[in-house]
Amino acid sequence: MNQIKCINCGFPCYKYGKTRKGTQRWQCPECKTVFTNAIDRTTKYFHQFIQWLLSGKTQDEMSVSSRTFRRNTAQFWEIWPMPPKVEEHKDIVFVDGIYLGRKVCVLICCDEVHVLGWYVCRYEHTAAWEALLQRIASPNIVVTDGGTGFKKACKKIWKMTKVQRCLYHVYCQVKRYTTSRPKTLAGIELYVLAKDLLAIHTDEEIKAWEERLQLWSNKHKIFLSEMTRDEYGTLRPKHERLVKAERSLWQLVKKDILFTYLKDTLANERALPATNNRIEGGINAQLRAMLRDHRGLSIERRIKAVFWWCYMHSPHPLPYDEILKVMPTYKSIAKIYKEMSERQTLEEEIPTWGDAIVWSDLHNYDISLTKDWD
Prior knowledge:
The longest helix is centred in the C-terminal third of the chain and has 20 residues, at about 330-350. The protein is built from 16 helices and ten strands. It has helices spanning about 40-55, 65-75, 125-135, 150-155, 165-180, 185-195, 205-220, 220-225, 240-255, 260-265, 275-295, 300-310, 320-325, 330-350, 360, 365-370, and strands spanning about 15-20, 25, 35, 90-100, 105-110, 115-120, 140-145, 160-165, 225-230, 235. The protein has about 375 residues and is an alpha+beta fold. Helix 4 links the parallel strand 7 (about 140-145) and strand 8 (about 160-165). Strands 6-5-4-7-8 form a five-stranded mixed sheet, with helices on both faces. Helices cover about 45% and strands about 15% of the residues.
């Protein structure tokens, strides 16, 4: 049994009776302080909470009853796990967004092993991507599915980073336009071209694929230029979906972001990824599985569950007792917000320089002048 020490001076204490509730009291022989040694089980309950959240177990499968478990862990839903600031330079990172609801998206950035950052927003847009990227050191290559706003944010925050567009998402984008069973010859050939993107491994194959795309455009130029009028009388391309698919491929070729995994200098040292499989299968799939295991959570708790999963898979998660000390809660956030609001209100009430009234302008302290006043 551990020796109980005084909460004031640290000297060993001895038993000093019990309280009315039966709790053991202790007294210090040096300073005569009497106290009860309450056992803090918060860290133990927090460990159980994380274990339940990440393991897929039900509340009935925990070591206590489900009602007791909910009572012991309810306080931990108040905590917001915050992402770390990553200053270590990475060669390759992956970015993607996972939607948890109609207007709730969590943007995630990871390397080949750990989750580096996360950010919640209503939808993918430039400001949200900037908020995520600015806490992570600029990598050599970033693999993306082309989410809305990422290009602009990457150009602003990660100026020297090269972009690799996920080839599987490029193929899926073309398939949405052509379908998997196109009915026209042009559609069939373009669908095959997009599918062949996934099997390119050399510079010669890149050149051959681009030549095939150019031949396809020349061959079906007249077919794609056919026009028709819609129900409102507006003139539109007759094969608009094929035109959009062709245009999307040519834009990616001109931006030179399709084959970064073969053209970058890192390709001489190691095999570089051409798809976003690391984040799609390694993170998003596991997050969806966790949310299925705990289906029924409110949208707010779903967000926090994703945050906790990301934090526990970050490079250096803190010990459980340290997390409880440093992570913000609703109460701490409300306190900070209140202090900031009060400070802003005070600053607005105090007149700025040049607008304040000078008391001496309203009161003349020269006694000789006051004699002539009426």
